[in-house]
Amino acid sequence: MFDRLSAHGYEQVVHCHDTATGLRAIIAIHSTVLGPALGGTRFYPFATDDEALTDVLRLARAMSYKAAVAGLALGGGKAVIIGDPHHQRTDALIESYARFVDSLGGRYVTAEDVGTTQADMDLVATITPHVSGTSTGSGDPSPATALGVVAAMRAVARHRFGDPDLGGRHVCVSGVGKVGAAVVDHLVAAGAKITVADVYAPAIDAVVGRHPDVDVVDPGGAHAVACDIFSPCALGAVLRSGTIGEMQCDAVCGSANNQLATDADADRLRAAGITYAPDYVVNAGGLINIFEELDPDGYDPERAAARVDTIEGTTSRVLATATEHGITTAAAADHLAEVRIAQHSANHVIRRFDTPPTSTAPT
């Protein structure tokens, strides 16, 4: 356990258990160097406890890097509740989980993620103030995440094709849940040609109902569709040795977390001539939107949208850094994040965050 934590500098991992409600959860805090560790709560039926731990550790670290690259005064954390939310979720279980979050004194701020809802966050807010994305705050982060994905696509199009215009570009969106479906809406409005895939038939039906001209493919073969941009917007690890060899796209730019199955897959993509926009750079829109809740003047959707739009410039910076130094885009993004965190690490001490931070990012 401690070898796994020390390998990437995790500060704290909390295992939460409540026999009365059946709660089994893990909260991972990767870093609080730049601020409290903000990250969503994933409610998912992991096959094993070790699988859950692996997922939460990877996600927490990605949140630290996401916040750092985006220039936010936040650290990185994540939580997983082990179980099937459709059958095991109860108000008592969510309240029990919220008490564990509250016990951390603001070091971890939770939010909505896969398997949890805004209503869950509203319930959490009755127990602890250390929650974001509630119905009285910035709300569902999915629309902002989708806006960020499209902003990143413009940077990718400029880098790869010499023009940020997505009109006429063929984009395959794999996973059309809340984020992916919104990405499709924006791309259709921009005049792009769209192919979609999802394991959940009602999600496909909803998209086709709004956009009857989209093409539909089997989700198992979405990565192999010949297109300009492949946009993975479901669960992670879709970019691996087996799938990369089958890909026929020029670039990858999507909202899914942990798209690379291993670090070596970034090198495989580069060798295949595929431009990869690192996932935590692309999908930072939801985090940026939630962060705007902390502004002393209150949440302003127009200000939040403008800040989400800066993802285009951040993505361009990452792609340019990779080209300049002859490294993968994943390495370039990690470097930018690590430099910012290191600049603030010297005087860092483990502490509580009982008083919420301001939305002004540290210099």
Molecular structure report:
With 363 residues, this protein is of the alpha/beta class. It folds into two domains: 2-66 and 74-124, Rossmann fold (3-Layer(aba) Sandwich); 142-285 and 312-333, NAD(P)-binding Rossmann-like Domain (Rossmann fold, 3-Layer(aba) Sandwich). It is built from 15 helices and twelve strands. Strands 1, 2, 3, 4, 5 and 6 form a six-stranded mixed sheet that branches. The protein has a six-stranded parallel sheet with strand order 9-8-7-10-11-12, sandwiched between helices. The radius of gyration is 19 Å and the shape is globular. The two termini are 34 Å apart.
Task: Offer a few descriptive terms.
single chain, 363 residues, alpha/beta, Rossmann fold, 2 domains, six-stranded mixed sheet, six-stranded parallel sheet, 12 strands, globular, disordered C terminus
